[in-house]
């Protein structure tokens, strides 16, 4: 047989696995439906955040973290409730992943040349009890170089494998079927697509030139999730999250279509936790889109007030950056598919960042000079561009003008000035003391006790209607599709399991296609920084297991 392993997907999990296999001296066929310009997949577009536990970066900032605290947070967040069934292996992957994040993960990456921005971010802060959802401490470590920086070392290893003749890379080869013989997956069939030199991320042609077939000792599926296929997202949308949004932006390119998941099922694999998904609630339409319906996520600090489409303020834990799925549920049950931030210029200057490598040229380009400009007056340049050109922003000197602009934007009078003013003034009265009963105001003060938040992330508490903090800004927030939390159930070697709980011979999966491990390492919710990390860990696990075969 010409190949030891066929890896389907040239995203981060596929590259990590292929690198491990080449290092073990195995011959790998690496296939992907997209052109070589998309090498690295979705990870290239990411902000490059990684979940690490008790790191030197945390300790330098005075953050006291531990394996036990991280595991407590993971369990409180995941909410595993399908033990002995769909969650059986996700739970085991979660234990292994927290061990990895608290152990060798950082040094392994450093040995590959990966470095981290010194300020640790605090994502998914929770807002519940100590054993509930969320990170108790900041754990979001940004890779110096963002998404391209985490892709680079593995892409280089794979290219070295290509040079040495161990990796045969075929872009524009779309797998449509797994070949099964006597219950064993022995290869793949698919379509050789026409060449397409469009830039990274743009939708490419599906014109078929010819069919192809390839065989190997095993097939590793790393083809991603369903976030670019809104029809499939809505089909799997759980009732607990309310009505599926009529309008939804895409946080991933169109090729993230989930089509191969069904083929893996037909080959005998078990797809679990279909109803678990991770979509963001702070999406804005990209004024300069790369892929169809391209949405950008705002990474907010904790100060903006969050209102539903009719101008009613959300309560705890639905504050910016606290509990993504709780807020998604609240929006879904509001009867609308959008919501609003209302904030001041003083807040947006310090608290708004945009997710993605292309929206953070300073971190992506490793520019100290540009990084230092973040502490200067004014919003970061990418945010300023969206304020001026983005269709979802309203900027006004007074609250009446702001409310009129919000209603004009949606074409209907849904927000009423008197009620909006009442709620904002009630919040503003809570600013006069260093203590308060408003949980969001309390959370802002707590955040500023964290050095990183105080330095670069959280504006000093102030009245929203203080003219000196203006102008006022409203941002219409759309749902933006992103991650699939369920997937093919796998054991800790990445072997895909069947309905009987036994491995499907010859079939492996890693990355988002496997729910980042076990068919759902996150359970119901993510602690953030765990998607890239899940691709790294599951790709490494599968690659090393196959490399020993």
From TrEMBL:
Signal peptide: none
Protein name: KsdD-like steroid dehydrogenase
EC annotation from Swiss-Prot or TrEMBL: 1.3.99.-
Species: Bhargavaea cecembensis DSE10
Alphabetical UniProt keywords: Flavoprotein, Oxidoreductase
Domain FAD-dependent oxidoreductase 2 FAD-binding: 4-532
Top-level enzyme category: oxidoreductase
Molecular function in Gene Ontology: steroid dehydrogenase activity, acting on the CH-CH group of donors
